[in-house]
Specification:
The protein is of the alpha+beta class. It has helices at about 10-15, 20-30, 75-80, 90-100, 115-125, and strands spanning about 5-10, 35, 40, 45, 50-55, 60-65, 85. The strands form two sheets. A five-stranded antiparallel β-sheet has the order 3-2-5-6-7. The longest helix is centred in the C-terminal third of the chain and has 12 residues, at about 90-100.
């Protein structure tokens, strides 16, 4: 775990496993979903220790603190030592609530559900 002076934010987000690929990390920075001190940043911005980073993924805002500077993707255990998750319980609850609700809506133009479709919808809703 090298403590180099300048680490790009897109590389760090990828290295600590916040994003699956570096390209996704770069796109998130370019689209304004990654912020430091409330300001949108470019993917080439250098990060420093103890900075607070806000990452918007869907409806959830994750908040992370930089506790270590790593440039390359390492094991999950070492990566978790380089980041401190400060996400509030309210945001974590949103994540759990969003993943637990089954999707029962139908696309426009699909018509009425068949008897089999209706049974499947009932299984999703009530677990029968």
């Amino acid at each position: 775990m090298g403590q180099t002076a300048k680490i790009r934010i897109d590389k760090w987000l990828w290295a600590v496993r916040i994003f699956k690929t570096r390209a996704i990390s770069t796109d998130a920075c370019n689209s304004g979903k990654v912020k430091i001190e409330g300001k949108s940043i470019k993917p080439s911005r250098a990060i420093k220790l103890n900075e607070t980073i806000t990452v918007q993924k869907g409806i959830i805002k994750f908040v992370y603190e930089v506790t270590g500077l790593i440039e390359k993707r390492v094991s999950a255990k070492i990566a978790s030592e380089s980041v401190n998750d400060l996400t509030s319980e309210k945001e974590k609850f949103k994540m759990k609530a969003a993943s637990s609700q089954p999707v029962t809506s139908r696309d426009k133009g699909m018509g009425r559900p068949t008897k089999k479709d209706r049974r499947d919808i009932e299984k999703l809703k009530w677990g029968k």
